[in-house]
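At this stage, I wrote out one protein's amino acid sequence and its backbone structure tokens, and that material follows here:
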Amino acid sequence: MSASDFVRLTELVDGYIGQSNTSPNILIIADNFPCWDSFKALSAHVKFVREHHRLAKKIAIVGDGPVESVLPSIGDHIVKATVKHFAGDQLDEARSWFTADNAD
């Protein structure tokens, strides 16, 4: 992802929050994480997380890479949301968890 991708993501998320007055949960389909094309993109990602991490209640990460499986442990120290990893073939399960009312 590029820095401009994170600028656009910020615009979309902020627009959604402004229109709906609710915070979105986040679903990440991450086949090749990390996916930054530059240090500027990494910085933009960190800025996005810093400014938005308290808003989402759930973050579902779907992917089979070695990094994806450890992101929930890292996320527990960085974000307020509950972060859960799902294998690449568990997209339906991730969506079910993601949209359920409970935080488990």
